[in-house]
Amino acid sequence: MKRFASILSVALLFVAFGPFALRVSAQESTPAPTDLQATARASSLTDYPELKVNITGSAFELSSQQVPAGIVLLTVTNSTQTDTGVGVLGPPPGETMDQLLALAATPSASPFAFPQFLYHAVIPGGPGDVPPSKTVQALVMLPSGDWAVFGDGPQGPAFFSSADSADSNTNAPAANATVEMGEFFFKGLDQGVSSGSQLWEVKNTGEQPHMLVLAQVPEGTTTDQIVATAEQAETGTPQAGAISPSDLTFVPDSVFLESPGQTMWLPVNLSAGSYAALCFVTDPNTGKAHVTEGMVSIFTVS
């Protein structure tokens, strides 16, 4: 497994019509999902228009350049040999994609700083990890407008649009659990969740972008231990209570990135055990990763 510190490294290179890559990865030894999400889980997703995304070594290939506005099923296939996260991104209300591209092309103060334009863009979500040769799915809400598929590899963004049509569907699917993200917390997991295939509704009710990264941890692990481990990885300074990075097994089920006010639906399939939910977005006010500011939830899957 990659070092825990590698997850805290968020780097993005964006040039209009060139590479657009967000790196938040620690999945080398994670268990792989099935070729598609389990049939029982996928059956609740088929009522929605679908956008298929095929990841190649150099591009995101889309099945269509226009989809019905509303909730859209992203079906993402990774045809490369590298774990890849995928998200959907668009300009905020009143702005154009060209304006967002111009902001994205503005150099950051540091090549390793969390890109400022990601605080500004509308990011409905997307699957945080698509293992090589696998396919994963997620539901995202796409109002009418211009959008781009982006990821954490060398691929450039793939542009498409959404428009109201007879096929638009804005009815939320039935979810097994609701997870709320904010500054700096997760709600909805502390009472535990069931194992097996299910659908989570994931909401960002905060004022900053957030992500949902899941890792299986030893039973009895505490929030303070996870925070100490993250601080140690971020600063390189030993922290009392930190655990070994090898004690965290990151799982593919995750949310790549989600903007304030957005809701998406994430298929998950977790085995029984103890887990931690974490967010590695950088707080623009402090420069610290959200996980080091206490954005951790320890929960049990049974």
Task: Explain briefly what this protein structure is.
The chain has 302 residues and is mainly β.
Architecture overview:
- The chain has 302 residues and is mainly beta.
- It has one domain (5-301).
- Helix content is 11%, strand content 36%.
- It has five helices and 20 strands.
- The chain has helices at residues 5-8, 39-42, 97-104, 117-120, 223-235, and strands at residues 12-14, 20-22, 50-55, 60-62, 66-68, 70-78, 86-90, 122-125, 135-142, 145-151, 158-163, 177-182, 185-187, 196-204, 210-217, 249-250, 255-258, 263-270, 273-278, 296-301.
- The strands form four sheets. It has an eight-stranded mixed beta sheet. It has a five-stranded mixed beta sheet with strand order 5-11-10-7-8.
- Strand 12 (177-182) and strand 13 form a beta hairpin.
- The longest helix has 13 residues, at 223-235.
Oligomerization category of the chains in this entry: single chain
Residue fraction in strands: 35-45%
Largest sheet: 8 strands, mixed
Q: Please write the string of helix (H) and strand (E) elements.
A: HEEHEEEEEHHEEEEEEEEHEEEEE
Query: How would you sum up the global shape?
Result: globular
> What number of domains?
1
* Major sheet: arrangement of strands: 4-3-6-9-18-14-12-13
Instruction: Please tell me the overall pLDDT.
Output: 86
Rg of Cα set: 18 Å
Structural class: mainly beta
What is the total tally of β strands? 20
- The amount of helix comes to 10-25%
Query: What is the count of DSSP helices, taking H or I runs of 4+ residues?
Result: 5
User: How far is it from the N-terminal to the C-terminal residue, by CA?
Assistant: 25 Å
Q: Which residues form runs of ≥5 with pLDDT under 50? A: 1-43
